[in-house]
Design brief:
This is Aldo/keto reductase. The chain is α/β, with parallel strands linked by helices and about 350 residues long. Helices cover about 35% and strands about 15% of the residues. The chain has one domain: TIM Barrel.
């Protein structure tokens, strides 16, 4: 895998990124360490985490994933310089009262304090890519469909204030580059416009949900990213397991489905976009197409992301070493044009059921 640039920053990453939100909830610490080590052995230099993780978020596991990564780094001297480490500051609490006491804001002081906490937990001196996990503005995300001005987060910090906090961190040598997550075209434009206007750090990347079940990136955000020179980091390319085929025969709660998979183990995930009937219906259609053309469902779903021009690095999340190897092995898979056309036909019929 050749290294790719992130936006206009000096960061160079592998086109596969190891997502770690399962560490500390579905994946215990020894297994997490084994996955981190195997990922590096397989040539992946990019790790993504967040102060909020593990997922599903709970007060008991808040910050736990970063601590697990920090313990691994401490136990493996010399590994840090081989890696590009990304983490995220949580946006407004969205009902998570353990995040900044349930604050509906994300101030400059919050961003600086959160960064210091992440640095300490991970036993590192600098975060390579520091991202805002979701906007302070009220925008449709995590299964939301529509923007409604009536839901505006009145009194929330302005984008310029957030940028100035990031500027403080960059100048202090605590952050190398900045990014966004769960953002809209408007948000990306404003962050870039204000950065250029005031000489503040320029956004390098946007981490959004993107894959076969959620392709709204291709309806406007991709043009924004292309023209502004900002990289896309897709998360959930396997749609919380829907695109692995594990739910095809028995349904979400079938007796043959492992009790450890996210959509069965955690009721909160079923209530979000992944548990929608149309999401399962579309996934089964895509999975059947994959088998028809001689691919596994996971292989096709990952290859779809790996080969899209819009994508810089795809974030993969796993529970086992076997899953990690399968996801990395899918790199280099080329999907025939005929299959891509059939994929588009399914999307035309069942539009993005897991946005």
């Amino acid at each position: 895998m050749n290294l790719v640039p992130l936006g206009q920053s000096d960061l160079r990453v592998t086109p596969i990124c190891l997502g770690t939100m399962t560490f500390g909830e579905q994946v215990d610490e020894p297994t997490s360490h084994a996955i981190l080590s195997r990922s590096l052995e397989r040539g992946v230099n990019f790790i993504d985490t967040a102060e909020m993780y593990s997922v599903p978020p709970r007060a008991e596991t808040f910050n736990l994933t970063e601590k697990i990564i920090g313990n691994w780094l401490k136990a493996n001297p010399g590994v840090r310089e081989k890696l590009v480490i990304a983490t995220k500051v949580a946006g407004p609490s969205r009902g998570m009262n353990w995040v900044r006491n349930g604050s509906s804001n994300l101030t400059a002081e919050d961003i600086v304090a959160a960064c210091d906490g992440s640095l300490k937990r991970m036993n590192i001196d600098v975060i390579d890519l520091y991202q805002i996990h979701w906007p302070v503005r009220h925008v449709p995300m995590f299964g939301g469909m529509y923007f409604n001005p009536a839901n505006e987060n009145v009194g929330g910090s302005a984008i310029e204030e957030q940028l100035r906090a990031m500027d403080t961190l960059v100048k202090a040598g605590k952050v190398r580059a900045i990014g966004l997550s769960n953002e809209t075209p408007y948000g990306v434009h404003e962050f870039v416009r204000l950065a250029e206007q005031h000489g503040l750090p320029r956004v390098a990347s946007v981490q959004n949900n993107y894959g076969l079940l959620a392709r709204t990136v291709e309806n406007g955000l991709d043009e924004t990213l292309h023209r502004l020179g900002v990289s896309l980091l897709p998360y959930s390319p396997l749609a919380f397991g829907l695109l692995t085929g594990k739910y095809d025969e028995e349904g979400l709660l079938g007796e043959n489905v492992s009790p450890e998979v996210r959509l069965r183990k955690f009721e909160s995930t079923r209530k979000q976009r992944w548990g929608r009937p149309d999401a399962l219906k579309a996934a089964r259609r895509y999975n059947a197409l994959a088998r028809e053309y001689g691919f596994t469902p996971s292989q096709m779903a990952l290859a779809f992301c790996y080969t899209k021009w819009q994508v810089a690095s795809t974030i993969i999340g796993v529970r086992t070493l076997e899953q990690l190897d399968q996801n990395i092995d899918a790199w280099g898979t080329v999907l025939p044009e005929e299959l891509l056309k059939k994929i588009d036909e399914v999307r035309w019929e069942i539009r993005d059921p897991a946005v």
